[in-house]
Design goal:
With 381 residues, the protein is of the alpha/beta class. The protein folds into two domains: 3-67 and 145-216 and 309-368, FAD/NAD(P)-binding domain; 89-137 and 217-301, D-Amino Acid Oxidase, Chain A, domain 2, CATH 3.30.9.10. The chain has helices spanning 15-24, 58-72, 98-107, 116-122, 145-158, 202-208, 275-288, 333-349, 360-363; strands at residues 3-5, 8-11, 30-33, 50-52, 84-86, 89-94, 112-114, 131-137, 140-143, 162-164, 169-175, 178-183, 188-191, 193-196, 217-226, 238-241, 247-251, 255-259, 264-265, 298-306, 313-316, 323-327. The strands form four sheets. Strands 6, 7, 8, 15, 16, 17, 18, 19 and 20 form a nine-stranded mixed β-sheet that branches. Strand 11 (169-175) and strand 12 (178-183) form a beta hairpin.
């Protein structure tokens, strides 16, 4: 059995883990342990992400706003293609969702109220009479998830980081200020700091390390690809009902991705789509859009993992020196990843996180239990 020594061990090679690792590797010797044979196989690899400022909890919105500049102008050499492409969001309120519409306007920013006629001009497949009220969020963008994830991996490797695939973290111990992680492959990795970025498996990792779980809830989200012909959908805005029961967006220029916006709690695993959710996605979409669905071309599911209050959990575990949480990204993990990765690196280095500091109280994992004051760092105990 070989022992590999580092400054920081990151558990999980999804977007949360690799964005943090890419920032950390500029100053520390970092290894990312990934249970699968490839990075980003689960939630990250199954995400149809956008940058939407008005989406998510207050802490998520802070990190989303702070991620904008990175996504618009990534560092030199980070990627070979643009990370984002403009795409408006059309929020529609059918009759019965007027109260949700008013609440959305009250708590959102940058929303432009529009007429049903304008909505039908932008999305001609909308059924007459479906829209009681609507608004556009024009400052929104499609995110190339694969390019973003691969960009962080490229940055990580350039800084000398180590990506250890097929290394499921199995045993955890802390001795003399050092975390020791044994993998199912028989390797041992040691470091003063352990970053739990295991997504849906975040509480599993914590329990294996002898820590109190946060109460994470993985939830299934289903996506369906259909052919919307004869409609040309490439330049349509995303169509999203204000009650968040479904949305549809263009995919690969000629196809439409539809989801029932499902959030079905389940244990962490390689989740697969359910036939009922596939049918529900199509039914809800067809109530709004006059699109004949001849067949489902593809369906898939991923896990979006939420904390008990649906905010992110980023920070030290007060009960376990050197144990750092980076979990609970829910549906905001992609769009917050540049700022979240930077925040992880700043907190581990003991630096002032700047504007991200406005979200620290909401992000603190200690909010889920009465614990001692947060601490930790590369200095160990």
């Amino acid at each position: 059995m070989d022992t590999h020594r580092f400054d920081v061990i990151v558990i999980g090679a999804g977007i949360a883990g690799v964005s943090a690792a890419a920032e950390l590797a500029a100053e520390h010797r970092v290894v990312v342990l990934e249970a699968e044979a490839a990075a980003g196989m689960h939630s990250t690899g199954r995400s149809a992400a956008m940058w939407i400022l008005n989406y998510g909890t207050p802490d998520a919105r802070v990190l989303t706003g702070l991620s904008r500049h990175f996504l618009m102008t990534p560092p030199a050499g980070f990627c070979d293609t643009p990370l984002v492409r403009p795409r408006s969001i059309l929020f529609v309120a059918p009759h019965g969702q007027e109260a949700e519409f008013e609440a959305m306007l009250a708590e959102g920013s940058g929303l432009r109220v529009a007429s049903p006629a304008e909505a039908m001009a932008r999305v001609p497949a909308l059924r007459p009479g479906y829209v009681a009220a609507c608004a556009f969020e024009d400052d929104a963008y499609d995110i190339d998830v694969a390019a973003l994830h691969q960009g962080f991996l490229r940055q990580f490797r350039r800084c000398g980081g180590t990506l250890a695939l097929d290394q499921r973290a199995q045993t955890f111990a802390r001795r003399d200020g050092i975390w020791q992680v044994g993998s199912a492959a028989g390797e041992t990795f040691t470091a003063p700091v352990l970053v739990n970025a295991a997504g849906a498996w975040g509480d599993v990792v914590a329990a294996a390390a002898g820590l109190r779980p946060l109460g994470l809830t993985p939830c299934r989200r289903t996506g369906v690809i259909i052919d919307p012909a004869p409609w040309a959908v490439a330049d349509w805005p995303v169509v999203h009902d204000v009650a968040h029961t479904w949305y549809a967006r263009a995919e690969a220029r000629t196809r439409l991705m539809v989801t029932p916006a499902d959030e079905t709690p389940m244990p962490p695993h390689d989740v697969q789509p359910d036939e009922f959710d596939i049918a529900l996605a199509i039914d809800r979409m067809q109530q709004a859009l006059a699109i004949e669905v001849r067949r489902v071309e593809r369906a898939w599911a991923g896990l979006r993992t939420f904390t008990p209050d649906r905010g992110l959990a980023i920070g030290w575990d007060a009960a376990a020196p050197g144990f750092f949480w980076c979990v609970g990204q829910g549906g905001y993990g992609i769009q917050t990843s540049p700022a979240a990765g930077r925040l992880v690196a700043d907190l581990i280095a003991g630096r002032d996180p700047g504007a991200a500091g406005a979200a620290l109280a909401r992000l603190d994992p200690g909010r889920f239990a009465a614990r001692a004051a947060p601490g930790g760092g590369l200095a160990g105990d």
